[in-house]
Batch of 3 targets.
Target 1
Amino acid sequence: MRHRLVLLTLFLACLGLPSVAQTAKADWKSRVAETLPLLGHRNWILIVDSAYPLQTSPGVETIDTDADQLAVVRSVLETINSSKHVRPLISMDAELPFVPDQDAPGASAYRAEIGKLLKGYEIQSQTHERILQTIDEAGKTFHVLVLKTNMTIPYTSVFIRLDCKYWSADQEKRMRARMSEANIK
């Protein structure tokens, strides 16, 4: 009887774990497709290398894709770009341009390929530590979807903060100015 009680307690405890759940590797595209309609501005989608840490903020969901990083970036951007409500704001690690091939074989080739893939996007560069802090903070309030890839080159992660597609920063600024003129705070 006591053994069953311990097993039941462990089972119930597992049900209450935060949303850092692992989804089956083959289902990552489905998970992106089903989650994207729920996401909006201030949510994040991260495509990260295999050593990216598992974060414990309650809003961070991690999926091991076991897929090629460039393929995951391409797929995620296609999904975002076909949405009607969000657009990608992309950040990358400031360290990446300083990773030499002699220390990380393939780093130069990756930089060239990711550069082609992200051509036309404005890329913000921040240190890895600063991006991790930003993601940790965001995960306390907003959903962050982390897609872990099989990449083994450091500082190659692509961090996508979602923004509203149909309302720009300029439109927001003009509206706020009109509100200020009307003394609305």
Note: The helical segments are 2-15, 28-35, 69-81, 107-117, 128-141, 169-181.
Target 2
Amino acid sequence: METTTFAARLRWWRERRGLSQLALANIAEVSQRHLSFLEVGRTAPSREMVLKLAASLDLPLRQQNALLLAAGFAPRWRESALGGQELAVVNQALDFMLEQQEPYPAFVVDRRWNLLRLNRGGERLVAFLTDTAPRPADPASPVNLADALVAPDALRPLIVNWREVALHFLRGVQADATADGTAETAALLQRLLAYPGVPRISEAPAIEEAHGPVLAIHFSKGGTSLKLFTTLATLGTPQDITAQEIRIECFFPADAASAAVFKAWADA
């Protein structure tokens, strides 16, 4: 988003959400006339009005702060370091979730799929796929799981149904870019789409005669086959930007053979 004034940002978000002035005015319980004046800069908003409109537009906490700043107010929401004392209870919950997922992989990532933490099952999966031990997370140079999935020289050669998996993933990143409106997520999407051989988002998924309830990622390497599906969890009531942008991706075996491989790795 290149707009910097409150009026321009408000109008940009309303149009991005596909709302008319009347529709947003009804949601926010303000008059359409007042909303119109706000969008052209004829009226300056109060801090309470900014927050009311941000909530009505379902803006992420980071974008709520940006809207407040554009209107001349201090940010409301804090962005804490993941390892800081402010997020101690969140870290405890993350550690618990990672531990409970054993022996299957689990990864903690940020909004743009930068790896923040993983459990032992995740370490074993990474070691199997890359033939290297995972290095400690480095905030200055994070491993990006989106690039690892989509780039031609990373995991792509090891995924039997890569095209279907990539198409599903790219649509998820596109939805993220639409929802959060940040230049960073938009840049991630464009970077992923620029890799050679990437399917177009508009491409129809392959129609198979039989399919399961979820799309499993089928890894195949050196005679070992792993079929896994994933779940994504977020914190339900975040009051901190970092907490809101955390995701926990858990991998589960899609068949008994895959489950047996992870149990054998854990017992080795």
Note: The chain has a mean pLDDT of 93.
Target 3
Amino acid sequence: MWAHYADSHNGICIKFKFPSNVTTTGNDKNYVAYFKDVEYISDLKKYSKQDSINTKDAFFAKGKSWKYENELRLLYYNTTNRDNHVSLPISNCIEAVYFGVKCSDKDKQTIKSILKDRKCISYKSRWTGNKIEEIREEKDIEFYQMKIDDKNFGAIKAVKDKK
């Protein structure tokens, strides 16, 4: 998928560790937020013949030829359509960055500079006595370089960057 989504290996891939509450919108009923697997359909033409389309089909249907992607999507929007831009209420959730095979050294250094001193922060719950305790975990963001795998024809592998 590097060819489709990362400018033929010139780009990057970002791995996120989303907090469990990323789809919790609290008391604000104007927002909808959820993760859903994409459904791969053989006949997308049927939608062009309809006057309307439901949310599931509009955002989570894709042609069967893309099935190998095994895609998961996050839908997050304001149902009142009053916002020009909606940001996810998350921070510190970048777990890793993967640089494409042809990603330039300049781009790598720029990204590393932007993420310098940032951490991936997550929380785990555990029982302590008769109550639940939240444990904060803090990790450095990891960087990986994608490389041609000499042992497996046509494959690439991630090699951890030594910063």
Note: The mean pLDDT is 86.
